[in-house]
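TEACHING EXERCISE
Course module: macromolecular assemblies
Task: Read the component lines below, then compare them to the predicted structure of the full complex.
Student: A.B.
Group: 4
Components provided:
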Amino acid sequence: MARKVLGLAAAEQLSLLRIAILGLISVVAIGSRLYSVIRFESIIHEFDPWFNFRTTKYLVNNGFDSFWNWFDETAWYPLGRVVGGTVYPGIMVTSATIYNALHFLNIPVDIRNVCVFLAPVFSAFTAIATYHMGKEVKNATAGLLAAAFIGVAPGYISRGLRSSCSCSPSSCGCGRCGLGSALYAALTAVFYFYMVSAWGGYVFIINLIPLHVFALLAMGRYSNRLYVSYSTFYVLGTLASMQIPFVGFQPTRTSEHMAALGTFGLLQLVAFAHFARTLVPQHHFQVLLRGAVVSLFVVGLGGLWTGRFYSLWDTGYAKIHIPIIASVSEHQPTPWPNFFFDLNFLIWLLPAGIFFSFRELTDNHVFLILYSIFAAYFAGVMVRLILTLTPIRTYLNVKDVEAAGSEAEAVPVAKTEAVAGVPAAEQISVSKSGKKGKGKKSEKTEEPAKSEPAPSSKPATAPGDERWNEELVVMANFLYLLFMFQWHCSWVTSNAYSSPSVVLASRSPDGSQHIIDDFREAYYWLRQNTKPDAKVLSWWDYGYQLAGMADRTTLVDNNTWNNTHIATVGKILASDEDTAYELARRHDVDYVLVVFGGMLGYSGDDINKFLWMIRIAQGVYPDDVEENAFFTGRGQYSIGDDASPTMKRSLMHKLSYYRFSSVMGGQGMDRVRRQPLPTEVTVDNFEEAFTSENWMVRIYKVKDLDNLGRSHHKVADFVGRP
Amino acid sequence: MRFLVAGSLYTLSLLAAASGLVHTNLIRTVDLTSAPFIREQIGAVVQNEHASKQYKSYTIAVPASKHAHLASLTVHERKSGVELPTVPLDFDTKRNAYLYRATLRAPLAPNDKLSLNVDMTLSRFVSAKPAVMEPADDQQWVWEDRALVPSVYETRKQKTVVNAPRVTRHTGVLQRKSVVFGPFNATAEDGPAEVAFRSNKEQAAAVHRREYFVSHLGDDLNVLEHYQLKSLAPRPPQYDKVRETIAKFMRTRDNFIKTLLVPVPVTARDMYYVDEIGNVSTSAVTSPREAHGQEFRILQLKPRYPLSGGDQYTWWHGYSLPLHAYLRRQGARHFLKVPFIGHIAASASGKSELTVDMAVAENVAVESYELHVTLPEGATDIDVRAPVRAEIAYEPTWYYLDSTGRTTVVVSTGNVAPGDLGDVLVMYSYSAVAVWQKPAVVALMVFGVFAVAMAVGRVRFGLAQAANKKKSA
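Instructor-supplied answer key:
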C-alpha cells in the first residue's frame, strides 16, 4: 500500500498534501476577496477603512511616536480627535510594519496597495488558523474542511479588513485555551493582545473565554490545566490589552470586562478550595463554593452597561434611547434571510453540530457549544456581529459533515473532502483503517461495498446493496450541498459584497460598463480647489472619506464618539436656513456637502437618511427639532410641494433640491422617492460651489457676511435669484 | 513709482552713454495669436560709436517681471541667420533686469553696423480681463507691457508692432490689424502699452514632470507624466450647474476644459490614467492619426470635473514603449535618445469627436518642468545633453529588489517654450555583467535564507532528547 510517490512515504505525502491543500485554500480565500480590486481598481472601496488607510499613511510618514501622540485637528472640528488614544492600532501597525519591511527589502510598494491587500492576505492566515483550531477540536481533515469553509464564507467576506485581521488570532487563541500549557496560554494572550489592538470586538472573546471556564467549573471539571491556562491567559492578556491607550483601565472598570475578572477571582478561590479540600471536610466547601459563585456572578453582571452593549440585550433599546447607534444599518437586528444568505447550509447544520458536540462532551466541545450559542444570539441582534458567528458555524458544520460521513461510512467524508478542495488521496487520514486510499470518485463509490471497515457507529443491518444506496444518497446530498455552498459563496461574494461604495457601476444598454464616479469627482474637486484648511460640514457617513479623499477638515465622521456634535450637525441640516447659517458660521464651516440621489435614483442619499439626522438632533435638542413636524398632515414623508413647511424650510431639503427642477423640467420627478419635485426652492445664505456630474454630491459655500450688513435674503431680493 | 522709473531711465541712459554701442533703429514685433505663448522679436541695428574699442558681445536686458514668463531667448545675426551663443549673466539689481550676453561672430569694429534679431517666447504673458465672466461668453485677454524696449544701450529710434486677433481695445495706433506703438526717439518717455483682444482659445498653465524608466531586460521604456494643470480662463461669476448640464446636453460652447489630449507614440501600450484618489475611469485612446508628418495616437483624458476658470487638476498618466526604438549601443556604451518633453492640449470642446488639430494645439504653458530618467541598476559614466538650458542633477533610486541602487537623472527647468524641442540624450555605460546583478543578488538572498533555515532546523532546542541521548550513550 505504502507506495512511494516522489520519494515520499505515505505520511510525508500526507503532510505535503495538507500543505498544498491549505495553500490552495489560501489562494481561494485571497482570490474571492479580490473581485472589487480586479473589477474596479486597487483602492479602498468602503467608507470606514478610509480612516485606517489615512492613519496608516500618517504612521508610515511620521513614525510611531508621532502616530501615538497624534492629535488630529482636522477631524471633529473644532474639538479635534486624539487619534493615538482612540484607535485600535493593530491594523495600522501591521500594515506599516509590512510596508517598512518591504521597503527595507527594496520593494517599494505603495502604502495604498499594502492596505488594500492586507485583508485578503489575512484571510489566508485566518484559514490557516482555522485549520489549526479544527485540528485541535477534531482532526486535520476537519481542520482542512473548516479552513475551506471559512475561506469563502460570505459572512466573513462582508466585513472585510478588520474581521479577518482580528478573528484569526481569536480563533487560534480560543482553540488553544483548553490545552493547559502555560506557553500556549501565553501565546493565546499574545493573540488576544493583537486582537484587542485591532478591533473592539475583542470584548466578545474576553467574555466568552471566562464563560467557558465558568461553565467548566460549574460542570465540576476543574483541573490544574484549566487553572494554569486561564490564569496565565487572563493576567498576561489583560496587562497586555491595557497597553492600548484606548482600552486603558477598562478591563478593571467597565462591566464588559467584569465577567473575566470575576471568573479569574473565582478560579483562584476554586483552586484554593481544591488545595484546602485536603484539609477540611468536603461538604463545608461545597456550601462555601456555591455562595462564592453566586455572589461573584451577581457582582459581574451588576455593573454599568454602556448603550451599545445594551442594544445587544434589548434590540429596541437603541432605537428609543440612542438613535445614533440605531441609525447605522450595521447595528440593526439581522433579518432572517441574511443568515442563509451569508452562511448558506452552515446555518441549518448548526443544531446538528451542537448535537454532535454534546454526544462527546469534552472541554473543547463545551467551548464550541458556548461559542455557537452566544455567537448565534449576537449575530441575531446586530448584523455586523454575524462575523463572530461565522467561524463557529464552520467548525460545527465541519463536525456535521464529518459526523454524517462517519454515520454513513468513511467514504462520504472522503468524498466531501474531495469537493472541498481536498484531493482524494487525503482520505488516507480520514479512514484510519487505511484500507482504501486511492482512486477517483467513481472507483471509490464502488469500493466501500467490498472493503467495509468494521468500526461503524451505525449498525450495518441492511444487506450490502441497500447500504451502498444509503451511502450514495447521503454522499450525493452532501456533495450537492458542498457544491452549492461554494457556488453560493462565490455568487454572494461577487454580487453582494464586492460592489464598492466609492463608485457605482452600471451597464449601458449595449452591455458596456459605465462607472458613476460622482463621489470622487466631488471629493477631488474639494481637494484641488478649496483652501487647504477649509472646513466641510456633511453627515458623518462621509467623514472618513472626506478626510481621506478630499483631505479637508470635517466636523463629524464615522468615529461617532461625540453624539452632541453629531446632533449639532443634524440640527444644522434640519433647521431653517437662517438658524443653520448662524450655527454654521459659529462652527467656522466653509462648505456644506450633501448627497442627493434624486437624479440618478441613488437611494442611499441624505434625504433618505434625513429622518435619522432629525431623530439624533431631537435627542439632544428636543426644543429645536421635532420629528413630527417633518411629516405632512397625513403623516407622509414627502418632499414635493405638499411637504410640511418645516421640511421645505430645512437646509437639507433646500440644498438637495436647489434648482433641481430647472434641469428636470416642470414635470420632473425625484427618482428615488418617486414624488414630484418642489417647484420653488431658494437658497440665499449658501452659495452653490460644486455639483457633481449626476448631481449626486452637492457642495455649497457658506456665504460671508454681507459687507453692508444686510441679510442675505435682502441681498438676494435686491440682486435677484437665478 | 514714476520717480523710480525716471530714475532707472536716467541710470540706463548714463550707462548707455558709457558704452559705445547704440541701437540706431529697433523694431519689436509682438505676436499675440499664439497665446498663452507670446512671441516677441526685437530687430535691432547695432552700431559701434566708440572711437577705438571693438565689441565682441551684445547684451540683452529682460526686466524681472517679464523674465518670470521667459521660456526661450535666442539671438540671430539677421543677414546670415546664424544663431549667436547666448549665456545668462548675473541679475542686474540696478536695472531690476536679467542680462544675457550674446557673443558676436566677429568683433564689431568702430563705426561698423550689425543687424541682430532677438527672439523671445513668453509664456502666460496675457491675462484674462475681465477676470470674471459668464463661461459661455467670448473670453477677452489683455497684453500689458511698456511702450519702450528696455536695453542697456541707447536706442535712437524704435517702434513696437503688436499683432493680435480681434483687437477690442488698445493704447497704440491701429494700422491694418496691427497695433503700433511709436515710433519713439531716444528722448521719448516710457509709458504702458496695452492691447486687449478676444480669443476663445483654451489657455492653461501646468507644472509638469516626465519620468522615463529604462528596463533593459524587459525591453521597456516606461513613461510617466505628472501634471498639475490650472485653467487660465476667466472665472464664472457663480457656479451654475443647471447651465452646465444643459450645455453638456446641447453641446454648446463654454470655456470649461473638458478633455485633455495627449499624443502618444503609436507603439505605446499599457496606458493608464490615475490621480491621487485612484483611477479616472473616463479616458480613451484613438486609432493612429497623423499630423506634421508624424504618426501618433491621441490619449483622451477627461478630468474628474470640467475645469472652469481658475480650477486646478492634478493627475498622472503613463504608458510603455519598446526600449530598442530609443536606445542605441556601441559596446557597453548606451545612448538613450528620448523626447525632452511631452505635449498636451486642453480642449473645451463639448463635441464627442475630437480632431487632430485640437490635440496638437499649443495651449498649455508649462511653468516648471522636471525630467527624470531612471537608468538600470549598474549604469555608470552617465552624461546628459539637454536641448534647453536646464539644471542637471543625479539622484540615487532604489527600485524593486535593487541592491546597489540606480541613478535617476533629473533635468529641471522653468518655463518651457512650445513646439518640438528635440530630444534629450542620456549616455551611460552598462556592461553585460550588470544585467545579471539583480538575479544574482536575489538568488543569493534566497539561498542565504534557505541555508539559515536549514541550519536552524538542525539545531536541537529540546532538553529531553539530549538527556535521552546521554542515557543511551
